[in-house]
Here is the input.
Amino acid sequence: MRLGSMWRDALSALVREPATQQYPFERLQAPEHLRSKLHWDLTNCTGCGLCAKDCPSDAIDVIVLDKKARKFVFRYHVDRCTFCSQCVMSCPKKCLEMANDEWELASLTPDDFLVYYGNEEDVETVLAAAASNGADASSTDTE
Amino acid sequence: MPTTPTQENDVFRIPIGPQHPALKEPGHFEFTVDGEVVTAATLRLGYVHRGIEKGTEGRNWIQSLYLLERVCGICSHVHATAYCLGVEKLAGVEAPPRAQAIRVLVAELERIHSHMLWLGVAAHEAGFDMLFMYSWRDRETVMNLLEGITGNRVNYSANQLGGVKCDIDGEQADDIRVGLDFLEGRIKHYLDVVSQDTMFLRRTRGIGVMTREDCERMGIVGPTARASGVELDLRVHAPYAAYPEHPVNLVTATAGDLEARFIVRVNELFESIRLIREILDDLPEGDLSVRVPRRIPAGETISRVEAPRGELFYYIKSNRSDMADRVKVRTPTLPNMASVLEIAVGHQLADIPMILTGIDPCFSCNDRMVAINDPSRGEQAWTWEQLRQYGIEYYR
Here is the structure.
């Protein structure tokens, strides 16, 4: 039995560098396998919607404009995403990928949390439909 | 529910909670005291009932994995492992050996993080905030390792039905070894502190003593039981995943007091470190997952795993649809909570936070609704409206 068993820690802490960083002036390097913002690639997508079906937090909408012409828009709700990467696993065509460096996702406006991927004119079509239907595009066009 | 001390018939009752009963989770304790000595204790749980079991019935098998992972924020991986092992058993598939090894590796890293978190919380309750801060600073090492492997600091989502999502390459293995070397040195230091510091031992030695017979009678599980000499560890007695290939050495103590619970948990950290090194040296080659059908064949199964707090039990029933018919979870805190009420009697009121923390409780994990059918009153079924009304009345 002895008193003050941690005095060495206390003394060494006096001359140690701080354990914390001065964020945002100093940024830690994100780990290579960090899961951050989701990215979608249209090239191989078949519009099967498995990603949306398996998403535990309803963060993905696959909007099918024309299945034959492969006109799809991928709507991603960043604020709902739990970064579990199940969609990446579920995609049979490997169209989805999680970036490892886009983790600073905080925003003051809700619009920043709604990300559209797809051809520019298709996204325009979806946004125009959303504007005419109200604030949010109807969910009936999702598959 | 009284919220201030009351005196009736010369009995003085002190309510503690539901806000912040020693820990930052809700639970209502009522202690009857004679002077400073506790003479009786009661407990009321259920303040963080979230309806998770019911929630699984409206989600597909894959989505439920992520809901169940959130039963506990500290031991999320072990919940996902229990669920995956159960569903895989029902589906008649088995995850590849490499996936099983990675599951165990992440589970043991999680055990290190959980026990170090507990060490800090328990030290804080004892008034030893320095140990709290240093153990939590060092816990960052294991949090960073978990983030490096899985991509998330909490709720790692390392599991998927049929295997795991993350692989471990040579560079990551080296990082883990370096992190473990650092942690091993620190944990040796913490073992010295909790077993030698005079002031700290005054808060732990001989406090909250529970005999082996008490533990067996109350059904206590996990490190709390092992500190009283109960040889019970599912990793040893019912090995699952990769534990058959990588056996665990049982860590027990005999004193059964708070000091023994500290020593058992800290010694378990060394065992986890040894196991992780062994797995890293002998990681099987092969795939990370196998395909699991979207519709799981009808049937029911149980799945038991050793969470950091003790035995975690899952019952899963499928009716051949793409959703679970029933998932029942029993977390280790529920049986352990009984011990707090029993051993609190006869102790000073000031020792209660330490006794409560000694079981490493997780309140939100254990809140379930249970309705017991009374055979004399016939079968009872609750409608949704009745449940809703019951909920409103309960919290009134």
Remarks:
- The mean pLDDT of chain A is 87.
- Chain A touches chain B through 28 residues (CB under 8 Å).
